[in-house]
Amino acid sequence: MARNELGVALKGFRIEQGMTQEMVEGRSGISVRTIRDAERGSKDTKMSTLQTLGNVYGMELGFYPKTFQMERGELQWVA
User: Which residues lie across from 70 on neighbouring strands?
Assistant: First the structure.
């Protein structure tokens, strides 16, 4: 996943939760600037930051083989 794709996903998760960047900052301790940079895909985001954001959004960070992709919350085999 490219940085800009990850950023779009992060922003989408935040909006789905009805949260502002300031609200995420309050719950995570991650600065608004770092959240904004992650959502824009303008800088590499630390794994620990992604894990923390995932926790705030009620998600779990995971790694999967390239032969799989996530579709609507389920792993799908990619031929």
Answer: 75
CATH assignment of 3-77, among 1.10.260.40, 2.30.30.140, 3.30.200.20, 3.10.129.10: 1.10.260.40
pTM: 0.75
- What is the CA 19 to chain-centroid distance, rounded? 14
| Residue 45 to residue 39: CA distance in whole angstroms | 10
pLDDT digits (tens, 9 = 90+) for 45-74: 999 999 999 999 998 877 766 666 666 666
